[in-house]
Amino acid sequence: MAWLYLLIAAVFEVVFALATNASEGFTVLGPSLLTAAAAAAGIFFLSLALRTLDVGVGYTVWTGIGSVGTVVFATLFFGESLSAGKVLAFLLIIGGVLGLKLADTVSGHAAEVSAPDTHTAAAQTA
After folding, report:
1. Where are the beta strands (DSSP E) in 1-115?
2. For 37-73, what is each residue's pLDDT tens digit?
3. Do the beta carbons of residue 16 and residue 63 sit within 8 Å?
4. Helix, strand or coil, per DSSP, at residue 80
């Protein structure tokens, strides 16, 4: 569930960034309200994800997905340029996010394998 919460948080991060741009310095009411709501929702779902994930992994993945998503949608909705250099940088970010996910999965599995089962040990001694 933590990774799902993190993905939801990242979607709100993208909405937050795009709404901030559309708010024109908080002079347009609708996008300004959306900015505040998306920021609150993003942080809420991030906090749920961080109950399980390491903060270094969770925060990095959240900002990475948010950054890439913001660039993609800003290109589509606001006509921002997308150069080859930007694409390469975003591919590196995506690679880093996937690497963190993989490292977290592997280390989480290793912890499960090496951690003693306290319920079984207690039952055997009783």
Report:
1. none
2. 999 999 999 999 999 999 988 998 899 899 889 999 9
3. no
4. coil
